[in-house]
Amino acid sequence: MYDTAIYIGRFEPVHQGHMALLQRALDSARHVIVVMGSAWQARSPKNPFTAAEREQMLREALPEADRTRVQVLPVRDYYNEAVWVQAVREGVARIAPEAGRIGLVGHFKDATSSYLSAFPGWELIHMERQGRIDATAIRDAYFGATPDTVRTGLSDLQGEMPASTLAFLEAFAQTPHFPALQEEWRMLRRYREAWSAAPYPPVFVTVDAVLRCQDHVLLIRRAHAPGKGQLAVPGGFIEQRETVWQSCLRELVEETHCDQPEATMRAALQAVAVFDHPDRSQRGRTLTHAHYFDLGNAPFPAVQADDDAQLVQWTPIGALAGMEEAFFEDHFHMLDHFLGLTGARPPSGR
């Protein structure tokens, strides 16, 4: 018997496989901490529900007697395993300073389960895969339905989820979020189908420009799916005859009309970082080269939205931390990397 059992998941949405693992955690310890991943992410077909909505689903699926034994710890996706592991450990220590002997419940589904080996000192409580489906199959059936046919669309999968999850999904389908997410889901399916016949899955290369001036950064609001209406830094795909530097300057001009002399941009360049987490983009494996520029206290360059941007704005750096849920994919974490918005840093020696 353990003092504390930890269960890590995203629960997008909650299904019976999740509940079996949670029950194992409840059977193994008097206190259970559910680490709710992908917290503070903008809504997307992969992350359609907020952490609060997922906690609601989870608690409603539990017997009332067990609800008080479960604490939920929301943790953001840092797109950096060392930083994420440290955040999980610190969060657990904060809400359970006397956690005692800790067990970590889980099963090795695929490469995405490697995190289970990243917590030395926590004993793995291994379980075999529970159920025949995962949350991806539920989301695909869900977004393939209409608001009025959710129950029919999920009929083959109803036995794989608690009744409370199905009720939540039916209610959520009546909100304005559902058609917007459906549009993105369809676009992403078409996008992946376009290269499905390639002999190997492609790796896409993009560029992004983090442009700072007078302690503001230049942001766009995306005009098209994926991420329509979400905030991002200017950027896009590299073209065949460009270097990443040339591509970065071109995308900055095309989306914002921020056309500074190249010499000015070279003098302002502070750093270049590659963001290459396998899950950073739902369009496919995408590596981006983010260029961080600082124009200091120079006058704000004139900007105007164009191309893939519906809006362009200079945003105070001090306001960014409160805007996390508005950002596309990992763009908040890109800003965090250069600007230190969350204070998160890799553990020493890693």
TrEMBL record:
PROSITE patterns: NUDIX. The keyword tRNA-binding does not apply. Pfam families: CTP_transf_like, NUDIX. Its EC number is 2.7.7.1, 3.6.1.-. GO terms for molecular function: hydrolase activity; nicotinamide-nucleotide adenylyltransferase activity. Keywords: Hydrolase, Nucleotidyltransferase, Transferase. Coiled coil: none annotated. Residues 202-338 form the Nudix hydrolase domain. InterPro entries: Cyt_trans-like (IPR004821), NUDIX_hydrolase-like_dom_sf (IPR015797), NUDIX_hydrolase_dom (IPR000086), Rossmann-like_a/b/a_fold (IPR014729). This is Bifunctional NMN adenylyltransferase/nudix hydrolase. It comes from Acidovorax soli.
